[in-house]
Amino acid sequence: MSEPRFRRRKEDRPQEITEAALAAFAEKGYAATRVEEVAKRAGVSKGLLYLYFKTKEEMFKAVVRGLVIPRIDALAASIDTSGLSAEEFLRGPFVDFVKTLPGSPIAVVIRLMIAEGPKHPDLVQFYWDNVVSRGLSAITELLERGVRAGEFRRTTVNEMPHLLVMPAVFSVIFRLLFEKQALDTDRLIDTQVDLLLAHMKGGNS
Amino acid sequence: MSEPRFRRRKEDRPQEITEAALAAFAEKGYAATRVEEVAKRAGVSKGLLYLYFKTKEEMFKAVVRGLVIPRIDALAASIDTSGLSAEEFLRGPFVDFVKTLPGSPIAVVIRLMIAEGPKHPDLVQFYWDNVVSRGLSAITELLERGVRAGEFRRTTVNEMPHLLVMPAVFSVIFRLLFEKQALDTDRLIDTQVDLLLAHMKGGNS
Amino acid sequence: MSEPRFRRRKEDRPQEITEAALAAFAEKGYAATRVEEVAKRAGVSKGLLYLYFKTKEEMFKAVVRGLVIPRIDALAASIDTSGLSAEEFLRGPFVDFVKTLPGSPIAVVIRLMIAEGPKHPDLVQFYWDNVVSRGLSAITELLERGVRAGEFRRTTVNEMPHLLVMPAVFSVIFRLLFEKQALDTDRLIDTQVDLLLAHMKGGNS
Amino acid sequence: MSEPRFRRRKEDRPQEITEAALAAFAEKGYAATRVEEVAKRAGVSKGLLYLYFKTKEEMFKAVVRGLVIPRIDALAASIDTSGLSAEEFLRGPFVDFVKTLPGSPIAVVIRLMIAEGPKHPDLVQFYWDNVVSRGLSAITELLERGVRAGEFRRTTVNEMPHLLVMPAVFSVIFRLLFEKQALDTDRLIDTQVDLLLAHMKGGNS
DNA sequence: AATGAATGAGTATTCATTCAT
DNA sequence: CATGAATGAATACTCATTCAT
Questions:
Q1: Of A68, A201, D139, D190, which is the most exposed, with the fewest CB atoms less than 10 Å away?
Q2: Does domain A56-201 sit in CATH 1.10.357.10?
Q3: Measured between beta carbons, which residues in chain C are less than 8 angstroms from residue D29?
Q4: CB–CB of D137/D130 below 8 Å?
Q5: What is the CATH number of domain C63-201?
Q6: Is the pLDDT of residue D180 over 70?
Q7: Does at least one atom of strand E sit less than 7 Å from the CB of D40?
Q8: Per-residue flag: C46 CB under 7 A of strand F
Q9: pTM for the whole structure
Q10: Does domain C8-53 have CATH number 3.30.70.1560?
């Protein structure tokens, strides 16, 4: 009675709540998730949520903001720090990262953005600035490095790094909807990267 | 005063309502769209909606069912009726169709499916059976025809027609979210098709 | 096509509707019965109902008014016309009538009156004037006849003919609610009449 | 401004609400009573009602369940604890109880059961098991005690305790409907009990 | 800080009633 | 007369948010 087994630290609370919210959103979507449900999952009272997030919407934004940035940052950073060539990086860390996406929190966030994005322009802007834009820039930079190093020709792909990201987004959505009739998303990703690398490395196209 | 209160158009109503609903869903998403808003757009009373659709959910399903099938059917049919070679078909009608997707009702339906799909398994199944599965089969068949005609080698693409569809889905989502920072989706589509055709037509991969 | 099998006569309509309404009310009660349901049972359109009854409430009143009066009238009339003694009448036609009540339309009307009466004071008044009051008077008159004829003593029952009616109302309600655990209502009625007749005919109470 | 918006009385709430509902149902009947009206009478918000009762129907059932059982229990218990003879009990506590019925909450519940019972079979069953069946058993037992003590003969009444309850039900309904032209229900009850006691105590029937 | 009882605006749905045909 | 498509006011119920404790 006098000794709580766990002493929750205030600093952890926001993230604990954010994770509970993510789990709930993943199952029901944003609109269909009750604030009370999030509270229950986080093991706190409904009222406490409002101490950390002014509204349900704020909570939603915190989820979207908090769970993606770190991962994108990590990937972007590793481009520079890894001593790998561009091709090695694409076939290694990049493909690995992309393959884990469909099962990761990012998949949930992507779904949330698609579903709720149009109602939250500021969030979309935030997402564009901090995730998409930076992600695409990082890839562009990587490809440039490959060109400078003589690994790649300069092709349309340099201007359309989307071609590399595309299978990730597609896989996330496909798996989200059609789990049962699953697509071999790993192979899809490999194939697309193969195609692009072949294209960039040579041939006469 | 001069306008009759009743219009009595039983046959047209369902589609009129369905179209109004699509427009509303496109702007706000399913959950955030008020039934009354749909009624207003359709120019009818709230009550009338319930004469044609038992619930808001039924209305949603009617939207998803009614607006995509015809278009997919038309495309699938044209594969057989057009006298074009496989490559000509891909570069012509197929690419044309895909390029119009991002601005078409199908884009809205795709978004709705992503957002609401997990809550409506029957709808997802319906969508899989009638749209995705049939679409992929049609493309597979087209590629086979190309192989038989000596146009194409047999490659991974034969087993992964998703590679051809991918830019469509990606474009739809990208444009939906980031209209402002728009991607040149036409070019993305062209490039992907170019890459795949080059791959299938020759080279040593 | 040109020859309808039945040619409905306008004069029958109100009663056809009234009967359909009674059947519907019997199953669901007044509030839970939809006007459309009555129309369906009567085999006419919803709109036509409003040609005969201004509102649903009017229809209800017509049911209550139309289906009971004739039966009470018939019973009251038979008191005078039958050549029976008071006791013979009570043991004969009266008990017969009372025994049929629980399964008759009157049972339904009684339930409707109990349920809806407090909201329709005019109807209650009508019912009092035309059914209850007249019924009680008729019985009172019958008992007086018995007294005058030397059949009965003058007792409290002369002032409380309710004692004779009581088992009818009780049986109707009991059967309505507890069909399964049924009471032998016939026996209840017989017993009560026996008791009262014994009381009125003699003894020293 | 000086009154606190919240009162926080979790334990009292259900009964407060139940009593407010009873009052409302008494005036308008179940179907015609608005949930908001109950809330207003209870001095709480509409939403709070749903914290304690899942639906309006549950509220109704709580009313029916909660307000009758205690009174029936008290009466049944007093049969055993009072040192009275059977006749004394009938003429004393029993008649007193029955005479208060027409003005008590039970009268309202009886009306509700008649009006809404057919739509709530479980409630009827509950009512049968806990009120009617137990009540009749208690009376039967009382009469048996009277027989064993030599107070009464064994008569039809032993098998039909309904004869004793009948005036209660009749009075409730009569007073409910025809307040104005009121019947002297007390006298009706006394008379019926007199009749039955005279019958059971002797005579040659 | 933390709770959860309480609020009330908001929403889907129903249904008696009307009226163009 | 007759129909049934159309109306819209009415109502049960939900849920994000507040605040006394």
A1: A201
A2: yes
A3: 31, 115-116, 118-119
A4: no
A5: 1.10.357
A6: no
A7: no
A8: yes
A9: 0.83
A10: no
